[in-house]
Automatic annotation (TrEMBL):
Residues 1-28 are annotated as: Disordered. The keyword Transferase applies. Substrate binds at residue 354. It comes from Nitrosomonas mobilis. Belongs to the class-V pyridoxal-phosphate-dependent aminotransferase family. This is Aminotransferase class-V.
Amino acid sequence: MTTDSYRPEKNISTFYPPQRTLMGPGPSDTHPRVLTALARPTLGHLDPVFTEMMEELKSLLRYAFQTSNLLTFPVSGPGSVGMEMCFVNMIIPGDKVIVCRNGVFGGRMIENVERSGGTALIVDDKWGEPVDPQKVEDCLKKNPDVKILAFAHAETSTGVQSDAKTLSGLAKKYDCYTIMDTVTSLGGTPIYMDEWGIDAIYSGSQKCLSCPPGLSPVSFSERVADLVKKRTEKVHSWFMDINLLLGYWGTSRTYHHTAPTNSLYGLHEALVMLHEEGLEHSWARHRRNYEALKAGLKTMGVEYVVAEPYRLPQLNSVHIPAGVDDKEVRRRLLADYNLEIGAGLGDFAGKVWRFGLMGNSSRVEKVLFCLDALESTLADMGSIKVERGAAATAAHLHYAANPILA
């Protein structure tokens, strides 16, 4: 037998992806500056020049999370790895953990608790509604031995934001730790890790930071660092053991794994851009574009899932109008406009669309493009009556009345 026996059946050549406009729940459009950074010369992961950049990365992430935690760094892996790192380091078998579930990602937290040997005490809220602090406090009162309270600040599956400050305050009142999911919120909506007293936090590179997927920024308080150091049994994951990773992301630069150097260049550049823009300006930009999108969608009779006070500006979940074919609309948007919007997950499958206005996808021209493409598609399909040009006009009027603040 020769090597030719294993040749692919078809002639495979260089892959060139189409140029899409990504306005779903993630990833968002990667900024050209980030793409340029990714293409820079690869360095060894222990190169002294690279380790200098690592220190800058940690400093920039502290700014993004609004924390002084020394244990702040990007994990090599998507946001799900950051999630698992929090749970696997902080839980020992038998620990009780309150998990707030109001969407898909609360459910994934439960999986992490159980796989780490803990017991999940579930506080359920309706999809599309924020976590109810009263339910959380009731559960804390009934279970004084709870170790951790875990919740999603921004539930990506529904577009709802919960009151992190209040929930963290309850955790402190009842002397337990907090784990908070900020995969969709980091860079797009206010996060004050230290002020709110959050113990462990994780995010993702592919949402409001406009990087490719594959890195998960995390931060841990001194309380968590002490907790992990005092463990009497090994963390149930070698790769995600904070004690081992400290050797690499700390000052000693002990070999742990081959870090994705070029991906870290990209994250560094994205965080430099966030610092240049300023957190407050980034938050305001995301809100301004959300308001314009909302104005345009209203002209088409498209209604939001989440009540106004709890909406994520960067992740807009809306009800699919009656009589409209969900899959066909998304297919046409992709085929005719190279535009991606998100489908519903879990209980919302086939019932909602999710429009992402994250990072580089949260721009005036992309909001207008998205509204025009959706309006034209719905008009062509004849499913509902729309007024051509009304959506973009409504958005323009919002922009004109709400100029960017210097």
